Amino acid sequence: MSRKITVAAAQIGAINRDAPKSETVPRLLALLREAGQKNVKLVVFPEVALTTFFPRHLFTSQEELDKFFEHGEDITQSPDVKPLFDEARSLNIDIVLGYAERTANGTGYNTCVYYSASEGRVLSKYRKIHLPGTKEPFEDPKAINQLEKRYFTPGDLGFKAFRAPGLIPDAAKKATAQSGESTVGKGDPILGMMICNDRRWPEAWRMYSLQGAEILMFGYNTGANMSHLWGSKPMTPEQAKVEALFHSRLVQQANSYMNACFSISSARCGLDDGKYDLIAGSSIVDPEGHVVAEAKTSEDELVVAEIDLGDCRQGKEKTFDFARHRRIETYGLIDKQTGVIEPELL
Ligand code: CDT
């Protein structure tokens, strides 16, 4: 039984602070149409894909800040973004889209949704759980801020894996499965979403792989030179950018392997306002940790690969067969303790 599917990361280059969504959405649409020509069935767009990465700025006007958010329950009906969902439906391509969400009660979340073309609706929503950066801006006026803790609340939807219909032929279905027959690895693809900084936390990946996730998808806005936040030894901006890309690849490859799943990552990258540098490196990684496709530019670019979900079985049934090898009786600290408690001094 073939479990092959062509997937893509839709990388988006520079978006300036004053760029309206009406200028950016056509760029996303162009990549979506390219995906249609390449028989892609699933496209992952970046984190906060509709505007510049505004948490780097301090806003004193709520009105100005709110322009970066999407308001209202159903993003598919948002006037600026509706054309993207309509096009996804007509091209029969599922999409993941990241955006800043303002709920009716005024809470801000860093959110993404999974839109199923065959269902014509949002199948799943994820709100970023690991918010990096600070609440207050740095005193150093030269520092680049990351004010996500100021503008967003940690996500309240957990790490919920889901199946998406219509992506692979002949998927096993509940209604037709014979009783007693194992359907493990035969149903519609099991998917999960994270957002940017979440990818650095193994707990996030493991929460999904414990639900059998076969593809993890995430967008990111990763500063190339965030020396006030990374806390690394002194480096030139060039070295810092190489290091940021190295860590981004490292966590994606290692966690794809350790969780026996594919991953699709999509960067917002390039030089926003000609000065805020974000790394590129959008990629598709297989369950053995190999990069199967990677962006070649720091601009708008579609990164495409045909993947076979059957390739997840080796890791899930051998090295990382959780049911046989995990030792949960020894993992208690993981959900009981947040920070580090060192052993007593000698
Ligand atoms: N957007 C986002 O989450 N960016 C973070 C930067 C962290 S700055 C220390 C990231 O993990 O890439």
Automatic annotation (TrEMBL):
<dbReference type="InterPro" id="IPR036526">
    <property type="entry name" value="C-N_Hydrolase_sf"/>
</dbReference>
<protein>
    <recommendedName>
        <fullName>CN hydrolase domain-containing protein</fullName>
    </recommendedName>
</protein>
<dbReference type="InterPro" id="IPR050345">
    <property type="entry name" value="Aliph_Amidase/BUP"/>
</dbReference>
<feature type="domain" description="CN hydrolase">
    <location>
        <begin position="5"/>
        <end position="309"/>
    </location>
</feature>
<dbReference type="Pfam" id="PF00795">
    <property type="entry name" value="CN_hydrolase"/>
</dbReference>
<dbReference type="InterPro" id="IPR003010">
    <property type="entry name" value="C-N_Hydrolase"/>
</dbReference>
<dbReference type="GO" id="GO:0016811">
    <property type="term" value="F:hydrolase activity, acting on carbon-nitrogen (but not peptide) bonds, in linear amides"/>
</dbReference>
<keyword id="KW-0378">Hydrolase</keyword>
